[in-house]
Amino acid sequence: MKTPDQKIYLASKSPRRRELLRQVGIDFELLSLRSDLGRSLDVSEDVLPGEEPLPYVERVALAKGAAAWNVLHQRRMQIRPVLSADTTVTIDGEILGKPADVREAVAMLEQLSGRTHQVLTSIAVHAHNLVEQVTQVSHVRFAKLSPHAIRAYCATAEPYDKAGAYGIQGLAALFIEHIEGSHSGIMGLPVFETVQLLRKAGINPL
Question: Average pLDDT in the 7-16 region?
C-alpha cells in the first residue's frame, strides 16, 4: 500500500537509470555528487590495487549512497530514501570501465568480441535505520565483431560514457548473441531487485 510520500533521491547521473525508474513508476529527484575536474570528489571510482570486480562495484555503489545520504543531511533537504548504483563490465577478471578515447573503446570491443563477459550492477538504498544492497550479475555473449563494425560503432557517441564501451539499449544490441540475467541490469539498474529494495524502505510503485 502506498504511503503519502513515495519520492526517492537518485544518486546517479545516468539517463538510463532515470528511464528505468520512470518505466516502473518510481518518482525521484536527482541528487548529484561532485565529479568535476578540479573539485574534490564525493566518491572515487578508481579501482584499488588488487581489487576484484565484485568488491569494487559493491564498494562504489555503497559509497555513492553514503555520500548522497550525507549531502542530504548537510543541505537539510527533506529526508527520503536514497538509491545509488554502479555498473561494471568484466572479462577474465579485468574491470572494463568507461573508455577515455577511441583507442580504448576499440581495444575493449576487440576484447569482448566473440566471447562471454559479465555485467555487474550493484544497487544500494539508504533510508531511516536502513542500508540495503544487492548486486545483480548478467552474462553477455558477443558475436565475433569485424574490424569494420568496431570502427563504425566507435565513430558514434555511444561507447564513451558506458562501462565496457557499449550500451545494450543502443546500436550494440546488434552485437549480442545471448544474455543470461537481467536486461535492465545490463542497462545499469536491475528493475526487479531495485523495487524489492525500495519496498523495504516503504516505496511501493503499485
Answer: 94
Interatomic CA distance for residues 166 and 168, integer angstroms: 7
CATH for 92: 3.90.950.10
Cite the active site residues.
86
20 in a structural domain: yes
For residue 37, pLDDT over 70 is answered with no
CB count within 10 Å of CB 41 equals 13
What is d(CA 192, CA 86) in angstroms, rounded to the nearest whole number?
Answer: 16
Domain carrying residue 42: 7-200
Structural domain contains residue 149? yes
Which residues lie closer than 8 Å to 27 by C-beta, 6 or more apart?
A: 6, 7, 8
Mean pLDDT of all residues in the chain?
92
**Residue 39: burial class (beta carbons within 10 Å; 0-12, 13-18, 19+):** exposed
Distance of CA 64 to the CA centre of its chain: 11
Cα–Cα distances in angstroms (integers) from residue 10 to residues 30, 165, 190, in the given order: 5, 24, 14
- The total domain count for the chain is 1
Residue 65 lies in a domain: yes
What letter represents residue 94's amino acid?
E
Residue range 137-188, pLDDT digits in tens: 999 999 999 999 999 999 999 999 899 999 999 999 999 999 999 999 999 9
